[in-house]
Amino acid sequence: MLVAGIKSRPVYGGLNVDIHARRHLFALEGEGALALLDQLKAVGMDVLKTADILYVASGSKAEDHDRTLAALGADSFWLAPTIPVLLNRFHVMLGQAHMGTCIYVAGTEGFIGQAQQAAMNHGVDPASVHSEHRGSAARRVQCVHCKGITDNVTTSPYTCSACGLSLLVRDHYSRRLGAFQGVCIDAEEPGTAPKPEELFP
Amino acid sequence: MNLNFKNESFRDDYTFKNSPESIRRFPFPFNEDKYMYSVNMEPHVPAGPAGHAYNNAIDVDEHFVAEMRDRALVLKEDPLRYLALPHMMAAQWDTLELLMENQAASYPEHFTLEKNGDQWHWINRPMGIDQIFTFGDASTLPMEPLEYITRQAQGDFVIVDQRDGQLWCDAGMVTTQADWSLDFDIGMNFHEWHGPVPLAHEIGVFDRALKFLLNLQQGKPVRRLNWTMTINPRLDTSPENYHKWGPDRATVTPENVGNKVHLRCELQTLWRLPRSNAILFVVRCYLIKMEELVTVPKWARRFHRVLRDLPPELVDYKGLTRYRPTTVEWLAKFDDGQPSTPGIYPE
Asked: So what's the ipTM on this one?
């Protein structure tokens, strides 16, 4: 589970399918597939008739969630090769969506953050996006110095993929950037960075 | 009041210093010999002895020209220090009006504002600026109104929007900050952007402050003081540049404490804006060297006690760990053990 008590981090309240919505748009990543499957047990399969599902397997390729999702018989199902490609299609579908569409996002926190960003850019209130964290606790982190973003950070400190500084991962999250903040850990005495510790497995 | 603007720097050779008058007007942030967070807000009305930073609603001092030069340098390196979300344009004009009116009213020798309907004429003599523009028409200014006016006003500026019973950090000019990033925090609500502050959430400070601010009234601004410490008189202690100024914290020795270690005080004022109903949050930074501070015996005594007895979480959060012992030891020489008088003003 994710660390609780970070004031700036959004609360992921669960997918909670709204059966009264006219259409359902799902953006799912990795283990996020299971969030939808669990919901269907609760609300039944009827919602799938008006559902579009976008899925990217990421680290869960071996689990074959894509086959399970494809076999559900949703109105549309599309398997994306990578997160950016999924987000691109998600962005287009948001632009074509009508009133009464409910938006659902599930997967790792970095994915949820980017999908919420896409929704926000279409004027959607992020609080109205149904979201559920599934899978790794890995963080997407922005280097506060060079502004470079590193995905799937599991340790603190980590090395910035853009500028190479050793960064402490702070418990401070920007919804707008969909990222945590990384701050140089040995600024006061360069060269004294401690060994990375696996904090976000 | 005719100000004598100084030619000084807040980087590289660090020639900043306070004149004797500037020391006496410093907004010293401790009214007793100990410190803990509180919702220490009071009406922002003129106060203090003649010349004090509290005399005028928007304070302009001898460092004005040099501070504006430093801001321009920061923005040249990093334009992301100025950001405004698109729905904040009415609040930008509100802010421009508030700053121009106050600076012109309090310092007529240095600033003039003439209004003829929506045709405005603004003169900023210390910076050699003479601008005619149409109020409300951003195309008549060389840049967005908030950026334009905050390049000509001391302090950082954040405009918070009020909606859904919350305050949202939606625009700002932030180049003299105590280690927070506008680029990271823009769009956050009041609790979110204060997320990393220790202890204060648990004792309810932010809940109470939010409740108070949501009811802030137009024409009744409020103020509070906050503080930290900075090594060398550096205005731009941003997280963006932390890897550049962080090493300075390891350079304090018993010999250089007096000149290198600075108390950094933030005079925070909050103003309800008339058109947008947003709140302007001004964070004005004042720096004072330890050797300047101890010229006021009351402040020397009191700051020694505050720093010596500071809770460990605050020592860590304010980044004082490395140089606090050296500074406390140096200040001890100026603490005669006498009781200190109440209030923040010099004796």
From this structure: 0.87
